[in-house]
Each structure stands twice: as C-alpha cells, then as structure tokens.
Amino acid sequence: MKKIVLFAAVAVMGMSVHAQEFRFGPKVGFAMSTLKIDEKQDDLGKRNMDPKYTFYVGGMAEYKINDNFGFQAEVLYSPLGAKEKIDGVDAGVVFVGEQTKVNLGTLLVPISAKYFITEGFSVAAGANFGVILTAKQKTVFGSDFLSVDVDGEEGEVDIKDDIKKLNIAPFVGVEYMLENGLFFDARYSLGVSNLSNDNSGGKVTNSFAQIGVGFKFGGN
Questions:
Q1: What percentage of the chain reaches a pLDDT higher than 70?
Q2: What is the Cβ-side half-sphere exposure of residue 51, based on CA atoms within 13 angstroms?
Q3: Is 160 helix (H, G, I), strand (E, B) or coil?
Q4: What is the tally of structural domains in the chain?
C-alpha cells in the first residue's frame, strides 16, 4: 500500500513539473496615453487631455503553473503623457491658441495573472507599477503657422517636482501566441494614482492602452 501511495505521489509530482513552463523574451509596441485632470487642478476645469501616441520597449518573463494558469512580469520603458490644443485663449489683446504637450518618461513594471483559454490564447489581469523618471511640459501660444514658446527657445519646462514618482494602473489584456513563440498582445491600464504634487488638492491621473508584439524563448 505504501509503495502504491509513494508511486502515486511521484507521478503527481512528475506531472506538476511537466506542467510548469518558463518563458522569457523581448517585446515592443504602440501606446496611446492620456491625462485626466479634475477641476481643482486647473482653471480650465475637469477634462481629459488629448491622447499622445507613443511607443514602449522592454522584456517579459512568464511562468506557467499548469495548462490554464500562469504569472507574468515585465520591465518596459515608455514616454507616456498627453497633449492638448485649446483655441480662443484670451491673451489680453487678441485671441490666440494654446498647445501643450506633457511627456512622462516612465519605467513600467507590469505584474499579472494569466488564464489560458487555449494553448496560445490567454487573458490577463494585473497592475502596472510605473516609476516616472522624467517629466517635462511644453506650452506654445499661437497658431500652427506662427507660434511663440512660453519659456525660452525650446519652451520645455521640467515639471518633475510637480509630479509624483509612482503611477499605479490596474490593467486587463489579451494575448495570442503562435507555436514558434511569436506573440501579440493588447491591454488597457486605468490610472488610479494621483500624480499631482499640488497642495490645492487637485488630481491628475495617467491611463494608457498598449498594442504590442514580442517573442518568447524557453518552454518545454
């Protein structure tokens, strides 16, 4: 009886080890980022800034526990942020336009749990832990043909002291992987962290969508 139990335990352990699978590799992609501002933060009131279209690049590691469940961790870099164009701002003499671009150089560490519907198709849910490395804003007054920078020739201002360093954004996503390891994924991250250091109690959040491609090495 003991031999049968021991054999069964070894067999179960063998199946568990066989089910475990580790993969890793690079990934790159396209990102669409926006900033949401509340009425306490800005005189223009509550609004969503226009999307900024940018990129991301980095690597991922996936640990598959069994045929259906796994975990994934990534390290990515993406220059997130947003932009805004406002027409008809009263400059005191004439009405001119205002264009603003915010660039947040962000190191992203997404961690997620994955459910594999099939061998190649999976859904995921997790959180993006973003560390903002750089934060700059450029504002230009004028039309597309004639413009004046607000601050010097470049018009770009370092706003790192005005922005908090940590951006936490829960996300959901989907992924499809081919048999050779090439995969495609898409996800949406909802910004929940207040990035504003303003003492007025205002709130600024950064949300973003990503579509990417990568390659996984390893596996059984």
A1: 76
A2: 11
A3: helix
A4: 1
